[in-house]
Amino acid sequence: MMRIAFIAHDRKKDEMVNFVTAYEHVFKGHELFSTGTTGQRIMDVTELVIHRYMSGPLGGDQQIGSMVAQDELDLIIFLRDPLMAQPHEPDITALLRLCDVYGIPVATNIATAEILVKAIDRGDFAWRELVHKYKPGVDE
């Protein structure tokens, strides 16, 4: 079971809902997290159970970032709106930086999200177990 987070900017929420609905069969076997409104919108049209954090601008991005830093997430699908300035841009940048630091795959557009979800469906994320085995400070 993987731990997957969903985040979508306002103008990308419909796209996220449609995407998660299309791949509901893949996501149903995993532990799911999301920022507030995005998670609620997904739950309104699917049978998925999602642990919702605060809205992104109110700290939800940081809450998900905290999960990354504590090695509690395996994948983030973050549909960003590159054409709209975001008031919480520093939080977004910090979250993406943490994903790079901790090697967490993050999709910021639907094309990348689809590739990652198809990899989950095939079981291609087993490499995460190997990464954890050789992390500094982890006993063998």
TrEMBL record:
One of its GO terms (cellular component) is cytosol. Residues 1-140 form the MGS-like domain. The active site is at D61 (proton donor/acceptor). Keywords: Lyase. It catalyses: dihydroxyacetone phosphate = methylglyoxal + phosphate. The keyword Lyase applies. Substrate binds at H9, K13, T35, G36, T37, T38, S55, G56, H88. One of its GO terms (biological process) is methylglyoxal biosynthetic process. GO terms for molecular function: methylglyoxal synthase activity. It holds the Pfam family MGS. Its EC number is 4.2.3.3. It is an enzyme of class 4 (lyase). InterPro entries: Methylgl_synth, Methylglyoxal_synth_AS, MGS-like_dom, MGS-like_dom_sf. Catalyzes the formation of methylglyoxal from dihydroxyacetone phosphate. Belongs to the methylglyoxal synthase family. This is Methylglyoxal synthase. The gene is mgsA.
